[in-house]
Amino acid sequence: MNRIIRHPDFRNRYHYSIKTEMIFIYIIISVFPILIMQKVFYNFSRYYLEQKINTLASNNLSYIKNNIESDLEYYREILYRIVTDDTIVQNEMRVNNGDDFEKESCSLKLRDLLASYADIRDEIADITFINKSFYSVFYDKKSLSAKNYVWDSWTISEKEQVYEAVHDSGRVMLLNTRRYYYNNEEKYLYTLGIRAWNVKTGEDLGILMLTINEKQLQDICNITNGKKQNVREYSFIVDREGTIVSFRNKKYIGTMLGKTADGYDIDTILPAVPLNKQDGVIVDTAAISNTGWCILNLIDKNSMFYETTMLWKITMGTTLLIITVCIVLIFLFSNRFSKSVNGIVEEIQKVKQGDFSAHIKLRGERELIFISREFNDMILRINTLISNLKKQSEYIYEISNKRREDELNAIVAQINPHFLYNTLDCINWMAIRRENYEVSEMISNLAQILRYSIRMPNEEVTVFEAVDWLKKYLYLHEVRFNNCFKSEFDVEDEVLNCRIYKLLLQPIVENAVIHGFKGFDSGRLLSVRIGIFQGSFIRIIIEDNGNGIPKEKVARLLSENKGNGIGIRNVYERLKIYYGDKAGMTISSEENTGTKVTIIIPRRN
To answer: Does residue 559 sit within a domain?
Structure first.
C-alpha cells in the first residue's frame, strides 16, 4: 500500500514512498527493456532460423530430386543395355518365331539373362519381355514361380493400352505405382517400359518392362528426416495430374490431390503424416526431369521454431522470476527503511544543534528525499569525512610512489641490455690490446648472440642469418667443451635468402651438444644440412654421432610436456604455431650411435 508522507517544511507537497518510486524506476529501466529485447531477439532468431531451415529444406529437396533422377537414369540404362544385348535379342526373336520347343527353351534362356540384369539392384522386382501376342517371358525376383504377378495382374484392356503406349512412345516410358499381390502379400511397384527391337535389322520384337519396388522412392524421399530432431517434415511424389505415386502409408497411393491456386490441396493426406495444418505447413515442390512426376516436401512450420520458442519461454520465465524476486526485495528493503524515517530526522536535528553523540539507527524504509535535505545541512560537521579524505590522500600517495617505482624499473630494464653490450665491447677491446684474439672472438660472438636473441625473438630472418648465428653459437660451445666436437654446415645456395623464424633450431643444437656429446673428450661431429625439398619446402637435418636416445624415449619425446624433452617439445610447438600442418619434425636415434632430427618447413622467399 502506498503511503503519502507530508514533509513538515512542505505541507502542500506530497511524495510517494521510496518503495513505489523504486518499483516504478525498476520497471522503467529494467523490466520494459528486457521484455522488448526478448521480443526483438525472438523475432530476429525466428526470422533467421526460418531462412536457414528454408535453405536446408531446399537443399534436401534438391538432394532427393537428384537421387531419384540418378536412379531412374540408371534404370533407363539397364533397359537400353537389355534392348541392345545381342544374346537377349536372339532369344527374343526365337521366342517370337520359333516352334514350341525352341520357344520354350529360349524362354528359359531369356529368363536367366533377364535375371542377371534384375540382380544388379535389390529394388528391381521384375523384368518382363512381352511380344505383340502378349506372350511374356519374365524374371520375378520375389515369387520365382511360373506366374507373372506383374503383367498377369492387368486386364486385357490395360495390357493393350500399356503395350501400345510403351511400344509407340519411342523412349523409356514411366508408369505410375500399382498395387500387386504376391501370395496374398501386398506390394507396390512402379514400372519403366521400352520398345524391344533388333537394332541391326529393325525387326520389331515387343516391349520390355522393368518393375521397381516403390519403397525405394520412399527411402530416398525421407532419408534425411532423422537428422533434424525437432523439425518435422515429410516428402512424397505425385504425377502431373496430382495422383500420389509414392507415399509412406500405401493406402494413399493412387489418391488424387486437388489443385488450388497455391499448388496442391494436401488436406486429404495430412492425417497420414506427422504434421498439423493448424500449426502451419510449408509446401515445397520440385519436378523430376523427364518423368512428369513431382516431389512434394511438407514442413511443419511450428516445429521449425520449437527450440527457439522453448528457449524464449525459458528465458521469459527466468526473467519474470528475477523480476518477481527483485520486487520482493525492494518491498522488504523499502519497508524496513521507511519505519525509521522519523527517528532519522530527529537524530539529524540533534546533530545540527551540535550534539555529535547522536547515533542514527536505520530500521526499515528510508525516504531518501528527507535524508538528502538534512544531510546537505550537516555535511560539514561529519568528522569521518576528514578521516576518509586522509585515507584517500595516503592511498593516492602510495599509488603515485608505486607508479614512479614501476617507471624506474622500466627505465632500468631498458638500460641493462645497453650496459651489458657496452661492457662486453669494453672487454673485447681490452682482449685485443693484450693480443688475446681468441677471447676477443668469443666475446664478440657472445655480444652478437645476445643482440640477435633479445631483438624481436619471434621475427623471421634469412637462412643465411640463422646459419651465421648458429656458427657463432656453436663456436662458443666448442671452446667451452675444449673442442671435443666439431660442427659442419652444408647449406644450398638456393635457400640462403629463404625465411625462417629466429632461434628455431637452437634447442635442437643445444640438446645435441649438452646431452649427445656428454662424456666425450674428442671425435664428435655435429652436422647441419639445409636444402630445398620437393620444390616448395625446406628440409633441415641436424645429425650428431653422440650418445643417442633410448627407443622408448624417442617414442614419447614429442608428446612430453616437461623433463628432458622440453627443448624439442618447444621446437615442435613453435612449428605448429608458425606453419600449422604444413611443417613436420621427425627424430631417429640409436643409442651409442647418434641422433638425427629432420625438420620440414614451407619455403618462404
So the answer is: yes
Q: Of 191, 213, 235, which marks where a domain is finished?
A: 213
The amino acid sitting at 132 is K
Whether the CB-CB separation of 569 and 587 falls below 8 Å is answered with no
461/20 Cα distance (integer angstroms): 71
Do 582 and 492 have their domain in common? yes
100 and 121, same domain (yes or no): yes
443 with 507, same domain? no
Which residues lie closer than 8 Å to 165 by C-beta, 6 or more apart?
Answer: 173, 193
Q: 3-state class of 112 per DSSP?
A: helix
Q: Give the closest residue to 239 by CA, choosing from 295, 320, 166.
A: 295
Number of domains the chain contains: 4
Q: Give the confidence band of 395 by pLDDT, cuts at 50, 70, 90.
A: low
Give the structural domain span for 567.
475-602
Taking residue 85's Cβ as centre, other Cβ atoms within 10 Å add up to 17
Give mean pLDDT, residues 115-122: 89
Contact 207, 195 (CB under 8 A): yes
CATH number at residue 115: 3.30.450.20
Query: Which amino acid would we find at residue 177?
Result: T
Residue 314 lies in a domain: no
Do residue 362 and residue 391 come from a single domain? no
Helix%, strand%, coil% for the chain, nearest 5: 55, 20, 25
pTM for the full predicted model: 0.47
Greatest distance between any 2 Cα atoms in the chain: 139
* Element at 264 (helix H, strand E): strand 263-264
> Contact, 270 vs 96, CB < 8 A?
no
What does the angle CA 516 – CA 520 – CA 525 come to, to the nearest 5 degrees? 60
d(Cα 166, Cα 156) in Å, to the nearest integer? 15
Please check whether residue 548 lies inside any domain of the structure: yes
Q: Which of 420, 455, 490 is the last residue of a domain?
A: 455
Closest CA to 597 of 550, 529, 535: 529
Contact 58, 80 (CB under 8 A): no
Residues 19, 338 contacting (CB under 8 angstroms): yes
Task: Evaluate whether residue 365 is within a structural domain.
Answer: yes
HEC string of 408-474 equals HHHHHHHHHHHHHHHHHHHHHHHHHHCCCHHHHHHHHHHHHHHHHHHCCCCCEEEHHHHHHHHHHHH
The residue type of 131 is: N
582 and 506 both lie in a single domain:
yes
CATH of the domain at 529: 3.30.565.10
Rounded Cα gap, residues 70 and 20, in angstroms: 72
The C-alpha cell at 231 is 523439425
CB atoms within 10 A of CB 399: 10
Q: What number of residues does the chain have?
A: 605
Is residue 369 located within the same domain as residue 391?
no
Residue 290, pLDDT score = 86
How far apart, in whole angstroms, are the C-alpha atoms of residue 194 and residue 168? Answer: 9
pLDDT, tens only, 192-228: 999 999 888 888 999 999 999 998 888 888 775 444 4
β pairing state of 173-182 and 259-260: unpaired
Over residues 19-61, the pLDDT tens digits come to 677 677 777 777 777 778 777 776 777 677 677 767 777 888 8
- The Cα–Cα gap between 223 and 464 comes to 60
Residues 112 and 203 in one domain: yes
Q: Are residues 109 and 174 in the same domain?
A: yes
